[in-house]
Amino acid sequence: MITLIIFAFLAGLVTILAPCIWPILPIILSSSVAGKGRKRPLGITLGVMLGFGFFTLAISYLVKIFHFNPDALRVVAVFVIGILGLTMVIPALSRIIEGSISWPSSLFGQRSKQGSGFGAGFLTGLSLGIVWSPCAGPILAAIVTLAATGKVTFAVIMITAAYVAGVGIPLFIFAYGGQRVITRTRFLSAHLGKIQQGFGLVMLLTAVAIYTNMEYFYPTGTLATGQREFVLASKPAVSSFSLGGQWVIRQHEAVAGKNATLEYHFYADKVFLVLRPGSAGIGAKVKVLLDGKPVNSADAGSDVKDGVIMIDSARLYSLINLKGRKESHVLRLQFETPGVEAFAFTFG
Question: What's this model's pTM, rounded to 2 decimal places?
Answer without folding.
Answer: 0.53
